[in-house]
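thread: overnight batch results

M.L. [08:02]
morning all. the overnight job finished for the chain we discussed friday. pasting input first so we're all looking at the same thing
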Amino acid sequence: MKRVRDSHHTERAGVHAVAKNVHEEFDWIFREQEEDFGIDAQIEVVVDHRPSGKIIAAQIKSGASYFAEEETVGFVFRGNLADLDYWLNHDLPVIVILYDPNGQVAYWQHVTSERVTRFAEGWKILVPRSQRLEAAQADALESIASNNEYLRAVAAEMTCPHCGAALTSRGGDEILYEVFECGYELVDDYPECHCPFDPAFPKFEEYELEFLERGSGPQKRWFCSPLPQTGAAKKVRLGLGSGQTKEQAEQMMRVRHDRIFRNWKAERTRRNLKESFDD
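M.L. [08:03]
and the structure it wrote out:
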């Protein structure tokens, strides 16, 4: 019978925990590598809700064994020379991340030739206790991230220019359309629907409310239809609101507008974490 190694669970727990830290502490993008040849994930810096194209490669090690060798200011990580040569010659800067499942804390160190001590059959590097994977380390991590112009261009092309939401679909022959996760839509480079972070996103006051009363007695209902009064409002469809009173029907429309306008980052973060844990 095929068995799953205990170390596999420990390794996966470390990757999931680091993904959670990156999303919640930094609000950055964590991309796990499907084929691990010495790099477990890429971490992309996000600035003002937009992917920056500045990326760090990360190797994640989880378990008590990685904390067995301590020094005054940190933990000693040892590795093989093949991995070291691969990391030092990588196009992206590489950090090693040690995750302590008992304390539920992760520490990181940038792997550079200056920080490494080589031996005949291996090498070691000190991972400082002061370098926890948390928001206070954002500036330090961003300063070592690769500012790759090609990656920056790809990130810009594949994300909403207003909030950094991912491109979800693209198609068309003579007319090109693009749809982004936040609701932003482009048709031949012209906005068909605005992003909630776009200053042009319509305010609720840009709709004139038309009310209609239907039925009588307990069956009576009010319907609210928002009529767009500006070009921007015509590009954001709110639908139809209803309620037992005129005020309830109007409130439904206000809530619907606010939901569209809401900061979608929390939902995106929740989805990213769920996908990270559902491997």
